[in-house]
Amino acid sequence: MVLHNRRALRRLLYAPGELGLARAYVSGDLDVEGDLADGFRRIWALTRSGAVRGAKLGPRDWAEALRLAVRLGVVGPPPAPPAEEARLSGKLHTLLRDKSAIAHHYDLGNAFYQLLMDESMAYSSAYWTSEEEGYDLEQAQWDKLELICRKLGLRPGMRLLDVGCGWGSLLVHAAKHHGVTAVGITLSAEQLQHVRGRLVQHDLEDRVEVRRQDYRELRDEPFDAVASIEMGEHVGEENYPEYTRTLYRMLKPTGRLVLQQMSRGAVAPGGGAFIERYIAPDMTMRPLSRTLGHLETAGFEIRDVHALREHYVRTVRAWEKTLEGNWDDVVALIGESGARVWRLYLVGGALAFEENRMGVDQILAVRTSEDGLSALPATREWS
């Protein structure tokens, strides 16, 4: 670890731990020589072993620490956080604040995300079905989209709702390859613009509708199938019951839901200080069991849970490789500090999935009929 100036020490002094390190790295006050992922791996290993513990300082220790801080020149006001840090205001998860939180992450500009992602513009874990040379992220994302459509049992003429549709990957895939009509909703103005362009490109304007709309504002007739892919993390714990009730309300009896969502342990429900300040403000992840409980309380029958944790490791590493390969172009679009935010995010994210500190699952649920009919096949026909 290389500290380039005294400001780096002040950042660590005023915000010890993850946030101070992130601020110092993003601002360029601190660098890591060698492999960044390996550095993270070593830090987490020390944490797990108990080797890193808070020191118990007495009065003499504090006096010596203060003298050392003066000699090092780190006594002074706290440095301002980098401009990339989110500064949201207002009550958590109101309609207005949720729009601001989504804009912070997803409205960086479509040009940036087009550099980062593959042609599908799918910003969620892929589904890697082959180890053959040449099998890449674009093919793995196609396999993920196809898996979702098969789990939903999509057929020509069915109506699909995509809650948190992103850049439209599932909408386009389901309409082109499964003959459905579809509605997608997003809070991101940039995503809305991009999806509308894709619908024109693929001649799907008469079959797919996209809106800038909150899930709480949905008033449509029930759909044959509903998908929500890695959107539930943005809902918040307090509003999650309303989210699952809305998904249930939007389905016809015997309609299927595919919910893909990240998870983590009960002792760490959020994404951590760095994620919450720089990547996904107000993000909340919960244990898988709690998500299943919310779905069941809303009325769903859980039919299948498919863990994709290792698939996300490969997905995030593919994005990180693309980021490094397009580094100069990324810096030109979002600046050096913005690019460093994303490097830190992707390297740390891949490691979190690798070490089982975070997970991701595809959940298949059904709204049964009044007499309990699910209309699902007796076997997993999507396997």
UniProtKB/TrEMBL annotation:
One Pfam family per UniProt: CMAS
Annotated GO biological process: lipid biosynthetic process; methylation
Membrane-spanning segments: none
Keywords: Lipid metabolism, Methyltransferase, S-adenosyl-L-methionine, Transferase
Entry-linked InterPro entries: CFA/CMAS, CMAS, SAM-dependent_MTases_sf
Keyword hit for Methyltransferase: yes
S-adenosyl-L-methionine is among the record's keywords: yes
An example Gene Ontology molecular-function term: methyltransferase activity
Family: Belongs to the CFA/CMAS family.
Protein name listed in UniProt: Cyclopropane-fatty-acyl-phospholipid synthase
